[in-house]
Amino acid sequence: MITEEIKIAHISDLHLSGIKDRRQLGDFDRLLVHFKATGCDHLVISGDLSNNADQEDWRIVRAKLELHGFYRWDKTTVIAGNHDLINLEEEMRFYNALNPLPLVRKKVFDRRLKEFCLFFQELITGEKQGEKSFPFIKIIKYPSLRIAFTALNSVYPWYPAENPLGARGMVSPGQLRALGKENVTASLKECFVIGLCHHAYKVYGTDSLIDQAFDWTMELKNREEFLSLMKVLRAKLVLHGHFHRFQSYVVDGITFINGGSFRYSPKCYSELLIDGEGNCKQSFVLLP
Ligand SMILES: [Fe+2]
Ligand SMILES: [Fe+2]
């Protein structure tokens, strides 16, 4: 039995704001240099790369990953966050001016999601002709273990009444169906499965009315369906972001890890060490 540990770094919610924010870019460089120096096998970025759904920020992420040798299918996985796909101001302006039908808005949203997948296609599919869309599964074979990342998009279009801040999430029924198929579960049998989505299973969850009102605008609408799928896939961990807090919690035997926010805590990240027998140690690391 090979007992070599696999090291996975998880960051989230970069909320980059363009090339001019040199401090932020410097922080990002420092983090990537650290990952390389400490022998990080894989990096997960769980969404909200941009603050204003600006492709320029995606470009920065791609360039930085390339610069530090992480822009490879087996080295990095990225998923989209609401701030990558929804520009709230633009949505409202568009809505007030044209009042488009929900179907039209949904089409615009789908196009945006497709753009994200095409932009990061090298990280989504290892093959040139491979499917570049959500959900996607990555099985990486390390000498000691196979790790499977099962990535779902949880960003849900902006709707004035139902999703007024664009921050509510939902995993589409199509994605749930696609990953729930028997051949998918069979293909993951020998793997250590890690689920990925942007939205949190658990937001505040307190009895305070203010927190509850806030929870509603941030929540993953169908989190129970998502959880059921994770159980079917025998996921050990789910990595997410969105709710800018570094935390971990267990739901029905699955450990959820919130990667916090790079924008607000650029020196902190979540580290996973997984051995050949599937034992996992997680910690939040703070750079000096
Ligand atoms: Fe965020
Ligand atoms: Fe978010």
Which range does the strand content fall in? 15-25%
Fourth-tier CATH superfamily name: Metallo-dependent phosphatases
Instruction: Name the shape in a single word.
Output: globular
H/E series? EHEHEHHHHEEHHEHHEEEEE
Mean pLDDT: 92
Indicate the percent of residues in helices.
Answer: 25-40%
Number of strands: 11
Q: Termini, distance in Å?
A: 35 Å
Low-confidence stretches: none
CATH architecture: 4-Layer Sandwich
Q: Which structural class do you get from the secondary structure elements? A: alpha/beta
Describe the sheet with the most strands: 6 strands, mixed
Predict the CATH topology: Purple Acid Phosphatase, chain A, domain 2
Briefly characterize the structure.
The protein is α/β, with parallel strands linked by helices and 288 residues long.
Molecular structure report:
This protein has 288 residues and is an alpha/beta fold. It has one domain: Purple Acid Phosphatase, chain A, domain 2, CATH 3.60.21.10. Helix content is 35%, strand content 22%. The chain is built from ten helices and eleven strands. A six-stranded mixed sheet has the order 4-5-6-7-9-8, with helices on one face. The structure holds fe (ii) ion (FE2) (2 copies). One fe (ii) ion binds next to loops.
